[in-house]
Model the fold of this input.
Amino acid sequence: MSVEDVAAPPLSVIEAPARRAAAPRPAPTPADRRRAALLTAPILPTLLQLALPTVTVLVAQTAVNIAEAYYVGYLGTDALAGAALVFPIFMLMTMMSNGGFGSGVASSVARAVGAGRREDADAALFHAIVLAIIAGALFTLGAHLGGPALFRALGGRDGALEAATIYSNSLFAGAIPAWIVNLQAAALRGSGNVKVPALVTLIGAIVTIPVSPLLIFGYGPVPGLGIGGAGVAFGLYYSAAMLFLLRYMSSGASGLRLRIVPLRAKIFGDMLKVGIPTAFNAVLTNLTVILVTGAVGLFGTSALAGYGIASRLDYIMIPLLFGISTATLTMVGVNMGAGQAARARRIGWVSGAAGMIMTGSIGLLVAIAPTAWLHLFSHDADVVNEGVTYLHIVAPAYAALGFGFVSSFAAQGTGQALGPLLSSVARILIAAGGGWIAVAYFGAGMAGLAAMVTVSLAAYAAICVLIMLSPATWRTD
Done:
C-alpha cells in the first residue's frame, strides 16, 4: 500500500459533501416570491401591482355604494337624508376595521414576514378574529342602543330620523362578520397576498348590486323592506364572505395558516400599538364628518341631503386611496422588518405622490363639473345648489387628502402611528371646531363651512409631510 493510499480519505467521505452541496434546493413558495419582490423589485411597478387588484375591486365596491344611494333616492328626500345620517357611522366602522385595527394587523403581519417570523404571522390571524368579534359586537350594540339619539342630535327629524334608525339597525346587525372579513383580508394584504381579498370584494360587489334593490323594493315573493333592505344585503354578503375566508385561511393555501392558538399579550401588543392610534385616527376622521354633518343640519333637510351627496364623494376617495395605502403599508412594513429603512422611506414618498396625483385629478374634474356627480342622486334644485357650493370649494383640496392619507399608512407600516393621529386631530379641530364656530357664531353658510374643511385638509397634508421628513419615523431599532 502506498503512502498516497494511506493518506487519502475514503472516497465516500469526499463524495458525501459533494452530494449534499449538489442537492437541489426546495423551490421557492409563492410566499417566498412575494417577500423577495417586496424587498428588491422596483418600487413603483411593485406598488401598482399590489394596489391594482385592491383599487379595482374597491372601485366596484364604491359602485355598490353609489348604486345604493341611487336606489334610496327613489324612496324620497327623507330616506336620502336618513342614509346621510347613518353613512358616517358606517364609514367609521369600515375605516376602523380596514384602516384602523386592520392596519395594525397588516403592519404586524408584514413586519413578521419581513423578519422571517412565520409563527408570529400565523398567530396574528386568530388574535385578529378575537379582536373582530369584540369590536363588531360593540358596533352592533352601540348602533342599536345609541343610534336614534345620535341621529337626532345630528339634525334628524320625523321621517329622516325614522329612516336612519331602520337603516342603522339592519346595517349594523352584520357588524361582526364584516369585522372578521376585513381583519382577515388585512392579514392577507400584510403578507403580500392581495388577490384573494380583492376577489372576495369583487364577488360581493357583483352580488350586492342586484340583491340590494331586490330587498329594498321587493319583487314577486320577496317583500320590499324599504331602506332596511340595503342593510340586510350588506349582512348577507359579509356572512358568506366570512365563511369562505375562514375556510381558506384554515387551509394554509394563502401562505398563512389560521388555527386556534393560546392568546399572547405580545401579539395583541404588536397589533394594537399601531391599531389603537390608527383606529382613533379613523374615529377622528369620521367624527369630523359627523360634526360637520351636525353643523349642516342647522341649515335644514335640503342642505343636509345636499351635503350628504357631496361629502359621499369624500368617502369615495378613501376606497381608491385604500388600495394604494395598503400596498404602501405592506411594502414599508416588510422592508422595515428586513432592516431596509432607506428603501422603506423611498416607498413612502413615491406612494404619497401617487395618492396625491390620483385624488387631485378627480378633485379638479369634480370642481369643474359638480352636477355630473350630484345629478346621479337628486335633481331637487335646493339640494343640488348646496352640493355645488361644497364641491366647488372642497374638491380642489382632494390632492392634500390623497397625500396625507397614503403617507399616514407609510408611517403605520414602520410601526409608528402617533404622528398620523396628530394630523387627524388638527383636521378635526379646524374642520369641525372651526366650522361650528363659523356657522353658530358668525352665521356662515355652506361656503364658509366648506372653506374650513378645505383648510383642514391642507393642514392634514402639511403635518404628514413633516412626519415623512422626520428621521425618527424610519428607525429600525
Summary: The chain has one domain: 40-474. Residues 1-22 have pLDDT under 50 and may be disordered.
